[in-house]
Structure prediction request, 254 residues.
Amino acid sequence: MRFSLYQEFYKLMHQKMVWISPIVLLGLMVTTGLTIGYNESKLLMTTCYDAPDWIILILAVVGATFFSMEFQNNAILTLIYKSANKRAVYFSKYIVILGYNILLHVIAMAFTFVLWMTPLSRPFSWSTLYLYHQPLWENMLKTSAIDVLTTTFIISLIFLLSCLINNNAVVISVSLLMIFVGQFISASLLNGNKAVHVLRWNPFNLTNLTRQYYNYATYVDTSHLSNVQLLCSTASYIVIFVTAGYLIFRKKRF
Prediction:
């Protein structure tokens, strides 16, 4: 497992997209600050200039390319041959992408502190009470931590899709569709007022997790779940998707 982790980390670090992504992230964060405006500084700090939406897009591309491309060009055969077993291959890839996911969130928070010192943001104290009667710095940390769970859910889905579909472009397209359209699909299902108590647990609804934390009044009527319920169901779906992906990968013939 240690060799597989080293191998996957080495490959990830040699992808140009991995190094370009933080620069792209900074550019998108600055654009968000200019778009949302000077008067929404507290919201911008809490969400790290809407970093959750940008990070999830970056991970959809990097995650799908990192895994499904190796199915597409049959490089996965070499990995399986050199590794102790398929479990080591699958979970080493997953752990490395999770590490990159956490790193992107840490980078986003660092960029937020830098942007806080620029004219892009209205001057304020990080101890100012904001959401849930908590200081702003705590809101930012919790939003980032919650979004790590949301993006891990998307990563788990990407890995499952990569095991089912041996085409990088299709995996990326389906993942982006889930990110952008998932919320609207879930809202359409729940607006039918039929079996809402069951349909509210659908996986599309979980894309609301981060947004609902920092905009509870708006999204709770859409998700029909509390923050804790969304949190627990997201964690459950992560386990389900990771397990299903591994079982498919283990049974897959190469």
